[in-house]
Write a structure and sequence with these properties.
alpha+beta, Methyltransferase, Cobalt-precorrin-4 Transmethylase, Domain 2, about 35% helix, about 25% strand, 4-stranded antiparallel β-sheet, globular, 4-stranded mixed β-sheet, single chain, 4 helices
Length: about 140
């Protein structure tokens, strides 16, 4: 599926639009949420209604964004970050894989995706997620 088709589909459990890089805190939270659910893609430079605004990218734009994600996620998440041009405007694509070994925190808090929304996990959800992951990893290690 190409980028225009993705935009036409709209936001979903695995697709998020951010209008600009000024929303970097929400971008980091969405990286956590995607890591803790099914993975997904964040497209920066497009608003929720599908309007293409574009972002200006300089030499250090991708590096700065990567550093903000690395600095504020635990365990550290290394998403694939690329750029694309749509209607002569530059957008940033952040591809996040599901992280299978732990619950990923953003700013010290766990997030998840529910439909089109990034929401903070409750303490009970967080504990349950950790137990499920560790039980799955233990089963893989002992071969049961």
């Amino acid at each position: 599926m190409n980028l225009k088709e993705l935009i036409a589909k709209g936001g979903s459990e695995t697709l998020e639009f951010k209008k600009s890089l000024s929303e970097w805190r929400e971008i980091v939270e969405t990286v956590s949420a995607f890591s803790n659910t099914k993975g997904g893609t964040i497209v920066v430079g497009i608003s929720n209604n599908g309007k293409i605004h574009g972002v200006s990218t300089g030499k250090s734009t991708i590096e700065d964004l990567t550093n903000k994600i690395l600095t504020n996620t635990e365990p550290k998440i290394y998403p694939e970050i690329t750029t694309a041009t749509l209607e002569e405007k530059r957008v940033i694509l952040i591809k996040v894989e599901k992280f299978p070994y732990d619950v990923v925190l953003a700013f010290g808090r766990p997030f998840k995706r529910i439909g089109k929304s990034t929401v903070r996990m409750s303490k009970d959800e967080y504990k349950k997620s950790i137990l499920e992951i560790h039980k799955k990893n233990y089963t893989l290690m002992v071969g049961y």
